[in-house]
Amino acid sequence: MSGTVYLVGGGPGDLDLLTCKAYRLIKEADCIVYDRLIDPKILEKAKENCECIYVGKENHNHSMKQEDINQLLVEKAYIYKTVVRLKGGDVYVFGRGGEEALYLREHQILFEIVPGISSAIAGLSYAGIPITHRGIAGGFHVVTAHNKSDELAEIDFHAMAKSEDTCVFLMGLTKLTEIVSHLIEAGKAGDTEIAVIANATLPTQQVLTSTLAHVIGEFEQHPLSSPALIVVGRVVALRDRLNFQEEKPLFGVKILLSKVGHTASAIGERLQALGALVCEVQTGLLQENREALDSIVYEEYTHIIVTSKNAVHYFMNSLHKNKIDVRTLHAITFVAIGPATRACLEEYGIYHAIAPQIYHQDALLACLQEQLQPNHHILFPKVAPLNEEGMALEQALEKICPVKVVALYENIPVEKSELKKQIEQYASIPLTKEMLVYTCSSSVRRSIEIVRQVQEISCAQIFSIGDKTSETLRTYGVDAIIQSRHATLDSLFDTIKEQAEYTQKRKA
Ligand code: SAH
User: How far apart are alpha carbons 228 and 159 in whole angstroms?
Assistant: First the structure.
């Protein structure tokens, strides 16, 4: 008995355009066989032990023949329960999905088709071009420009020239000149609108609009690279009014967002939603010091200070591991560094925590100075290694009452070579507008020199989350810093957004 092969459409590029079913199957798959147009980021959602096999084509060097792919799917179906064959766009739109399904049927392998959003339609939408529009185009032709021998496919240009339908050519970039001349020869008017859309739906989307008479010259001056769609028809003129994607404030901007630990930053997706291409660069890993709180007698303490969400999580983990009843803490006052850390305590049912209005060490100290008496006793579980600034807080507190500092978890630097690889990947993204966003000092210390080695940073806008991070940037000679109004991710996001909107307005 074999497993099931799911032939899954991966959508046109933007991972948010993946269907729920595709997403669920990617998470469940034991094996994923994927193509060139699939963003490898999606594979991060797969199970840890999922076998991921790349069978794409790179610059016409077929890395695997279609017959071999068919055979591979059969083989894997006998090994695994759930095999996902992941293709760009829709499975049956020039994806050779039909051939694979027929082969599986012939070999009595169970299969299912999971349709995807095709670039042939969605790619146009993201460029502000509706594929049909009442009174302008009552239908559409979607054709491939290539035949098996890499020549121009047999296309009925006369039918296209006669009708008002929108014509969409896939795999057509190298055949642009031929397509245009055939359409004109067949009688299509030279002033018919045409668009070339590259990397549709992605932050690197680029669109050239012109007319049949002028497009070749303009394309030579502004060449685009594949994957690209060619659209011919009067609907192209609607782009002026219906374009939305490229008008987002961060469209065309690449962002290096520093991150420590495995969880994605709370602002990465929000920046992406504003059109940016966000590269989260991991500078450090968090390692829990599991025994840190084992010998603590909680009854001895009057206050517990927490200065990050991670400290809250690890603290609660430790209570759980040591089977300490939360009621043991009933007389202890929790003090959080800011509203977000306090909200994190609330998730664990601790509602009485004190926190300053803004996230800032000085505000925390002022808040504590008001509270503390010499007979109090503080437990301060926090991150290691402790930096000078962190120590300054403890020293100030020790003047009032005893403080027990516990290194609850550690921020360990990632290997330099690994960090460099991530930064090189970022640098290779072909977008010229860029932002470097630093969310902590340790990330600056670990990465700024490498960023400089890999690329010029003088044109990048550099953002910092707060005083400490800005100070560290300055010690590395970076002075043009845009600092977040408050030292929180929410405020950092607002600062970036406002800056982008301001830049956009100035250009308009
Ligand atoms: N099954 C896919 C098409 C595969 S053929 C679908 O339904 O979208 C590959 C061609 O699709 C490319 O040569 C290009 O013409 C088009 N294409 C796919 N993704 C694209 C994208 N993000 N932007 C522009 N064209 C794209």
Answer: 23
- Would you say the CB of residue 89 lies under 6 angstroms from ligand 1? yes
Mean pLDDT of 67-80: 96
| Cis-peptide, bond into residue 413, ω within 30° of zero | no
Q: Which residues touch 289 (CB under 8 Å, ≥6 apart)?
A: 384, 407, 408, 409, 410
Which residues neighbour 419 within 8 Å (Cβ) at sequence distance 6 or greater? 281, 282, 283, 413, 446, 447, 450
Residues annotated as catalytic are 35, 57, 171
Q: How many angstroms separate the alpha carbon of residue 128 from the centre of ligand 1?
A: 17
**Span 234-293, pLDDT tens digits:** 999 999 999 999 999 999 999 999 998 877 778 999 999 999 999 999 999 999 988 888
Task: Work out the mean pLDDT of the chain and round it to a whole number.
Answer: 92
In ligand 1, which atom is closest to the CA atom of 169?
15
State in Å: Cα 309 to ligand 1 middle.
42
Mean pLDDT of 464-489: 93
What are the tens digits of pLDDT across the range 29-47?
Answer: 999 999 988 998 899 999 9
| Cα 18 to middle of ligand 1, angstroms | 14
pLDDT, position 386: 65
Ligand 1 atom closest to residue 171's alpha carbon, by position in its atom list: 13
CA 119–ligand 1 middle distance (angstroms): 5
Distances (CA, A) of 431 to 203, 204, 205, 252, 445: 9, 7, 10, 6, 25
| 8 A C-beta contact, residue 2 and residue 95 | no
Question: What tokens were used for 257?
Answer: 């967002």
Residue 405 to residue 395: CA distance in whole angstroms = 11
Residue 453: both structure tokens together: 């080695």
Does the Cβ of 13 fall within 6 Å of ligand 1?
Answer: yes
What pLDDT is attached to residue 59?
A: 47
What local confidence, expressed as pLDDT, does residue 241 receive?
A: 97
Ligand 1 atom 2 nearest Cα:
89
**Which of 19, 39, 229 has most ligand 1 atoms within 8 Å of CB, for mutation?**
229
Task: Dump pLDDT digits (tens) for 156-179.
Answer: 999 999 999 999 999 999 999 999
Q: Is the CB of 170 under 6 A from ligand 1?
A: yes
